[in-house]
Automatic annotation (TrEMBL):
Name this polypeptide is given: Ornithine carbamoyltransferase
GO biological processes: citrulline biosynthetic process; L-arginine biosynthetic process via ornithine
Organism, scientific name: Fructilactobacillus florum 8D
Keyword Transferase annotated: yes
Keywords: Cytoplasm, Transferase
Lineage of the species this protein comes from: Bacteria, Bacillati, Bacillota, Bacilli, Lactobacillales
Swiss-Prot/TrEMBL catalytic activity: carbamoyl phosphate + L-ornithine = L-citrulline + phosphate + H(+)
HAMAP family: OTCase
Cellular component, GO annotation: cytoplasm
Enzyme class (EC, first level): transferase
Residues engaged in binding L-ornithine: 173, 237, 241-242
Family to which the UniProt record says this protein belongs: Belongs to the aspartate/ornithine carbamoyltransferase superfamily. OTCase family.
GO molecular function terms listed in the Swiss-Prot or TrEMBL record: amino acid binding; ornithine carbamoyltransferase activity
UniProt key word Electron transport: no
Binding annotation for carbamoyl phosphate: 63-66, 90, 114, 141-144, 279-280, 327
Length: 345
């Protein structure tokens, strides 16, 4: 089946979590994102897949990369885009999620939602009856995954058999999505985190079931040396997610899991077969107000860096800005595949 035929199977669908799709469909989205990126680089523009479409971008959490990717990417494909910030609508306060969804579905052709509970996304999609795209929920971050696995494929030429070690808070949405998506695509994802911060049993079981079909070998462990050994990708994220404030407790738990030069050496991987990734923002130095506040108020730190040192962040291994740039073609591919005019493919 061609990439186009696989993409046609996504028309009219919401993109709420990875397991709603087949591995072949996720691979098609990655390929489509790569194609859009190349078209933009070569021709300075992309086909107007979203011509005459109206999009609502609904944010209950602040955003940089996700917002810009939907807003700029939608506009580049010909869409009319309306942004709603966390305080400028009645959504979820004076008006229920279901009622708002009915209204949004009458007004727009597609909706991006960045919020909290995954169930809110499901409710919104059911009520709106137009494609709804998950810009991030407490449980999953599927648009990030298309960008992440595109980045890995660009660096290694393939996905199957790659070893990815995610080090840090293993209960957050990025860790959940990496574990499940990797298990779907044949990538061996290791979640390296203390027992209190490991994925739920349900997420681990889902990954194991998917891995039986792809041949992937997922692992969840607190053992740093075991978890990062032979890794091709070292991946980390902030230690305290949006809406959380327990910095000291997380520092106490995760300080041994900081991504630094010593941890990279534990991989034993040849330097030309190893990269570092981070979904950003990153606390790698003291040049943000949050990092400075944490460093001044919390103990147990050797400097301002938290989940990754500045040395690693600026090293030859670093791919976090390539990864950030890939957010836009990834999100454009998702929007075009589910809502766009694929006769332009």
């Amino acid at each position: 089946m061609t990439v186009l035929n696989k993409l046609k199977g996504l028309q009219g669908r919401s993109f709420l979590k990875e397991v709603d799709f087949t591995p072949a469909q996720l691979e098609a989205l990655i390929e489509f994102a790569s194609q859009l990126k190349q078209e933009k680089q070569q021709h300075g523009r992309v086909p107007q897949y979203l011509h005459d479409k109206s999009l609502i971008l609904l944010f209950q959490k602040t955003s940089t990369r996700t917002r810009l990717s939907f807003e700029l990417g939608g506009a580049e494909m010909g869409a009319h885009v309306a942004y709603i910030d966390p305080t400028s609508s009645q959504f979820g306060t004076k008006e229920s999620i279901e009622d708002s969804g009915r209204v949004f579905g009458e007004l727009a052709d597609g909706i991006e939602y960045r919020g909290f509970a995954q169930q809110d996304l499901e409710t919104l999609a059911t009520a709106a009856q137009v494609p709804v795209w998950n810009g991030l929920s407490n449980e999953w971050h599927p648009t990030q995954m298309i960008a992440d696995f595109l980045t890995i494929k660009e660096n290694f030429g393939h996905l199957r058999g790659i070893n990815l070690a995610y080090v840090g808070d293993g209960r957050n949405n990025v860790a959940n999505s990496l574990l499940v998506t990797g298990s779907m695509l044949g990538v061996n994802v290791h979640i390296v985190a203390p027992p209190a911060l490991q994925p739920s049993a349900a997420v681990q079981q889902k990954a194991q079931t998917l891995a039986q079909q792809s041949g992937a070998r997922p692992l969840v462990t607190a053992d740093i040396e075991k978890g990062v050994r032979a890794a091709n990708v070292i991946y980390t994220d902030v230690w305290v997610s949006m809406g959380e404030h327990n910095w000291q407790a997380r520092i106490d738990l995760l300080r041994p899991y900081q991504v630094n030069s010593a941890l990279l050496e534990k991989t034993k991987t040849p330097t030309d077969q190893l990269i570092f990734m981070h979904c950003l923002p990153a606390f790698h130095d003291g040049n943000t107000t949050t990092a400075a506040q944490v460093a001044s108020q919390c103990h147990g730190l050797d400097g301002p860096a938290l989940e990754v040192t500045d040395t690693v962040f600026r090293s030859k291994y670093a791919r976090q800005f390539q990864e950030a740039g890939n957010r836009k073609p990834a999100i454009m591919a998702i929007m075009a595949a589910t809502l766009g005019d694929l006769t332009l493919f």
